[in-house]
Design brief:
The protein is α/β, with parallel strands linked by helices. The protein is built from seven helices and seven strands, in the order ββαβββββαααααα. Strand 1 and strand 2 (25-28) form a beta hairpin. Helix 2 crosses helix 3 and helix 4 (143-163) crosses helix 6. The longest helix has 25 residues, at 38-62. Residues 124, 128, 147, 150 line the site of zinc ion.
Length: 224
Protein backbone atom coordinates (compact mmCIF):
# COMPACT_ATOMS: atom_id res chain seq x y z
CA UNK A 1 0.00 0.00 0.00
CA UNK A 2 1.14 3.49 -0.75
CA UNK A 3 1.31 6.09 1.97
CA UNK A 4 -0.07 9.11 0.19
CA UNK A 5 0.09 11.72 2.91
CA UNK A 6 3.09 12.57 5.04
CA UNK A 7 2.45 11.53 8.61
CA UNK A 8 2.37 14.36 11.11
CA UNK A 9 4.87 13.94 13.93
CA UNK A 10 3.03 15.98 16.51
CA UNK A 11 1.04 14.38 19.24
CA UNK A 12 -2.60 13.84 18.36
CA UNK A 13 -5.02 15.62 20.61
CA UNK A 14 -8.18 13.72 19.71
CA UNK A 15 -9.39 10.67 21.59
CA UNK A 16 -8.84 8.46 18.58
CA UNK A 17 -5.49 7.47 17.20
CA UNK A 18 -2.96 4.72 17.31
CA UNK A 19 -1.01 3.75 20.39
CA UNK A 20 1.84 1.39 21.03
CA UNK A 21 1.96 -0.45 24.31
CA UNK A 22 5.49 -1.43 25.26
CA UNK A 23 6.24 -3.12 28.57
CA UNK A 24 2.90 -1.95 29.91
CA UNK A 25 3.50 1.69 28.96
CA UNK A 26 1.24 3.31 26.36
CA UNK A 27 3.06 5.56 23.92
CA UNK A 28 1.62 7.92 21.35
CA UNK A 29 2.76 6.57 18.03
CA UNK A 30 4.80 9.51 16.84
CA UNK A 31 7.52 9.36 19.47
CA UNK A 32 8.74 5.82 19.13
CA UNK A 33 10.29 3.04 17.06
CA UNK A 34 13.12 3.84 14.75
CA UNK A 35 13.64 0.15 14.09
CA UNK A 36 13.48 -2.17 11.05
CA UNK A 37 9.80 -2.62 11.91
CA UNK A 38 9.24 1.10 11.29
CA UNK A 39 7.93 0.65 7.75
CA UNK A 40 4.97 -1.55 8.67
CA UNK A 41 4.22 0.57 11.71
CA UNK A 42 4.12 3.69 9.56
CA UNK A 43 1.82 1.90 7.14
CA UNK A 44 -0.48 0.72 9.93
CA UNK A 45 -0.56 4.23 11.32
CA UNK A 46 -1.49 5.61 7.92
CA UNK A 47 -3.99 2.82 7.21
CA UNK A 48 -5.65 3.21 10.60
CA UNK A 49 -6.30 6.87 9.94
CA UNK A 50 -7.39 6.15 6.38
CA UNK A 51 -9.83 3.38 7.39
CA UNK A 52 -11.18 5.62 10.14
CA UNK A 53 -11.78 8.49 7.71
CA UNK A 54 -13.44 6.21 5.19
CA UNK A 55 -15.91 4.97 7.81
CA UNK A 56 -16.54 8.53 8.97
CA UNK A 57 -17.52 9.40 5.37
CA UNK A 58 -19.64 6.26 5.03
CA UNK A 59 -21.47 6.90 8.31
CA UNK A 60 -22.14 10.47 7.24
CA UNK A 61 -23.78 9.13 4.08
CA UNK A 62 -25.86 6.79 6.23
CA UNK A 63 -26.85 9.65 8.54
CA UNK A 64 -25.22 7.89 11.49
CA UNK A 65 -22.51 9.14 13.83
CA UNK A 66 -19.14 7.53 13.64
CA UNK A 67 -17.07 7.19 16.81
CA UNK A 68 -13.39 6.51 16.13
CA UNK A 69 -12.13 3.45 17.94
CA UNK A 70 -8.74 3.56 19.64
CA UNK A 71 -6.15 1.28 18.10
CA UNK A 72 -3.51 -0.28 20.34
CA UNK A 73 -0.47 -2.14 19.04
CA UNK A 74 1.04 -4.24 21.80
CA UNK A 75 3.60 -6.95 22.39
CA UNK A 76 3.50 -9.72 24.96
CA UNK A 77 0.42 -10.00 27.16
CA UNK A 78 -1.81 -7.12 28.14
CA UNK A 79 -4.91 -6.78 30.25
CA UNK A 80 -7.92 -5.17 28.56
CA UNK A 81 -11.60 -4.75 29.51
CA UNK A 82 -12.21 -7.82 27.32
CA UNK A 83 -9.65 -9.94 29.16
CA UNK A 84 -6.00 -10.74 28.59
CA UNK A 85 -4.71 -10.39 25.02
CA UNK A 86 -1.84 -12.69 24.08
CA UNK A 87 0.61 -12.93 21.25
CA UNK A 88 -0.55 -13.77 17.71
CA UNK A 89 -3.86 -12.08 18.18
CA UNK A 90 -5.94 -9.21 16.84
CA UNK A 91 -9.22 -8.28 18.46
CA UNK A 92 -11.87 -5.61 18.77
CA UNK A 93 -13.10 -4.99 22.31
CA UNK A 94 -16.64 -3.54 22.34
CA UNK A 95 -16.39 -2.65 26.05
CA UNK A 96 -13.99 0.21 25.39
CA UNK A 97 -14.50 0.41 21.60
CA UNK A 98 -10.82 -0.36 21.01
CA UNK A 99 -8.84 -2.47 18.59
CA UNK A 100 -5.86 -4.49 19.81
CA UNK A 101 -3.21 -5.67 17.37
CA UNK A 102 -0.30 -7.78 18.49
CA UNK A 103 2.89 -6.26 17.10
CA UNK A 104 4.82 -9.54 16.43
CA UNK A 105 1.67 -10.93 14.78
CA UNK A 106 1.25 -8.08 12.30
CA UNK A 107 5.01 -7.91 11.71
CA UNK A 108 5.04 -11.62 10.83
CA UNK A 109 2.05 -11.24 8.48
CA UNK A 110 3.77 -8.29 6.81
CA UNK A 111 6.96 -10.30 6.41
CA UNK A 112 5.35 -13.55 5.22
CA UNK A 113 2.41 -12.26 3.16
CA UNK A 114 2.77 -8.51 2.70
CA UNK A 115 1.80 -5.11 4.04
CA UNK A 116 -1.76 -5.17 2.77
CA UNK A 117 -2.35 -8.53 4.48
CA UNK A 118 -1.52 -6.85 7.81
CA UNK A 119 -3.71 -3.86 6.89
CA UNK A 120 -6.57 -6.23 6.04
CA UNK A 121 -6.37 -7.66 9.58
CA UNK A 122 -6.70 -4.11 10.90
CA UNK A 123 -9.57 -3.35 8.50
CA UNK A 124 -11.36 -6.53 9.69
CA UNK A 125 -11.19 -5.32 13.30
CA UNK A 126 -12.54 -1.92 12.21
CA UNK A 127 -15.36 -3.94 10.66
CA UNK A 128 -16.32 -5.17 14.13
CA UNK A 129 -16.36 -1.57 15.38
CA UNK A 130 -18.71 -0.72 12.49
CA UNK A 131 -20.99 -3.62 13.43
CA UNK A 132 -21.22 -2.42 16.99
CA UNK A 133 -21.99 1.19 16.03
CA UNK A 134 -24.64 0.13 13.51
CA UNK A 135 -26.13 -2.49 15.84
CA UNK A 136 -25.50 -5.22 13.25
CA UNK A 137 -23.99 -7.72 15.69
CA UNK A 138 -27.24 -7.87 17.64
CA UNK A 139 -29.00 -9.06 14.47
CA UNK A 140 -26.61 -11.94 13.82
CA UNK A 141 -27.31 -15.26 15.43
CA UNK A 142 -23.94 -16.91 14.89
CA UNK A 143 -20.40 -15.56 15.38
CA UNK A 144 -19.47 -16.72 11.87
CA UNK A 145 -21.86 -14.12 10.40
CA UNK A 146 -20.09 -11.29 12.21
CA UNK A 147 -16.69 -12.60 11.19
CA UNK A 148 -17.54 -12.91 7.51
CA UNK A 149 -19.23 -9.51 7.54
CA UNK A 150 -16.06 -7.99 9.06
CA UNK A 151 -14.09 -9.62 6.20
CA UNK A 152 -16.58 -8.09 3.75
CA UNK A 153 -16.11 -4.65 5.34
CA UNK A 154 -12.32 -5.11 4.98
CA UNK A 155 -12.96 -5.80 1.30
CA UNK A 156 -15.07 -2.65 1.08
CA UNK A 157 -12.16 -0.67 2.51
CA UNK A 158 -9.86 -2.24 -0.13
CA UNK A 159 -12.35 -1.16 -2.82
CA UNK A 160 -12.35 2.39 -1.50
CA UNK A 161 -8.53 2.54 -1.18
CA UNK A 162 -8.21 1.09 -4.69
CA UNK A 163 -10.46 3.82 -6.11
CA UNK A 164 -8.21 6.38 -4.49
CA UNK A 165 -5.17 4.73 -6.16
CA UNK A 166 -3.57 3.74 -2.85
CA UNK A 167 -3.04 0.06 -3.66
CA UNK A 168 -0.04 -1.65 -5.17
CA UNK A 169 -0.61 -4.44 -7.74
CA UNK A 170 0.10 -7.19 -5.19
CA UNK A 171 -2.22 -5.87 -2.48
CA UNK A 172 -5.44 -7.71 -3.36
CA UNK A 173 -3.65 -11.08 -3.77
CA UNK A 174 -2.07 -10.43 -0.34
CA UNK A 175 -5.47 -9.74 1.23
CA UNK A 176 -6.87 -12.86 -0.47
CA UNK A 177 -4.02 -15.02 0.85
CA UNK A 178 -4.50 -13.61 4.36
CA UNK A 179 -8.27 -14.21 4.25
CA UNK A 180 -7.67 -17.79 3.12
CA UNK A 181 -5.05 -18.41 5.82
CA UNK A 182 -7.39 -17.07 8.53
CA UNK A 183 -10.10 -19.63 7.74
CA UNK A 184 -11.14 -22.53 9.94
CA UNK A 185 -10.52 -26.09 8.74
CA UNK A 186 -14.19 -27.09 8.94
CA UNK A 187 -17.47 -25.19 8.80
CA UNK A 188 -18.59 -24.12 12.25
CA UNK A 189 -21.31 -21.54 12.94
CA UNK A 190 -19.40 -20.49 16.04
CA UNK A 191 -16.08 -19.89 14.34
CA UNK A 192 -14.68 -17.55 11.66
CA UNK A 193 -15.69 -19.30 8.45
CA UNK A 194 -13.82 -21.64 6.13
CA UNK A 195 -10.89 -20.37 4.02
CA UNK A 196 -13.12 -20.15 0.93
CA UNK A 197 -15.94 -18.37 2.79
CA UNK A 198 -13.50 -15.79 4.11
CA UNK A 199 -12.04 -15.15 0.66
CA UNK A 200 -15.57 -14.86 -0.80
CA UNK A 201 -16.58 -12.41 1.93
CA UNK A 202 -13.56 -10.17 1.30
CA UNK A 203 -14.18 -10.19 -2.45
CA UNK A 204 -17.89 -9.50 -2.05
CA UNK A 205 -17.02 -6.25 -0.25
CA UNK A 206 -14.24 -5.47 -2.71
CA UNK A 207 -16.44 -6.04 -5.78
CA UNK A 208 -19.85 -4.86 -4.58
CA UNK A 209 -19.23 -2.51 -1.67
CA UNK A 210 -20.85 -1.70 1.65
CA UNK A 211 -24.47 -2.65 0.98
CA UNK A 212 -23.53 -6.16 -0.12
CA UNK A 213 -21.96 -6.81 3.31
CA UNK A 214 -25.27 -6.19 5.09
CA UNK A 215 -26.61 -9.51 3.78
CA UNK A 216 -24.43 -11.32 6.35
CA UNK A 217 -26.53 -9.90 9.20
CA UNK A 218 -29.59 -11.85 8.09
CA UNK A 219 -27.68 -14.75 6.59
CA UNK A 220 -28.91 -17.19 9.31
CA UNK A 221 -32.42 -16.97 7.90
CA UNK A 222 -31.50 -19.49 5.24
CA UNK A 223 -30.85 -22.03 8.03
CA UNK A 224 -34.44 -21.81 9.25
ZN1 LIG B 1 -13.15 -10.93 13.77
Amino acid sequence: MKISVRLPRRRQSSRSGLYFILCGVTLAVQAVFLTPAQAIQDKLTFASRDINEMWARQFQQLGRSWVSPRVYIYSGRIQTPCGVMNNWNAQYCPRNHSIYLNEPFVRRINHQVGDFAAITVLAHEYGHAVQRLLGLSTVSRYPVQDELQADCFAGFYAQDANRRKLLDPGDIPEATAQSYASGDPAFDLNAHGTPNQRVRAFHLGFDQGFQSCLSYSTWHQRFR
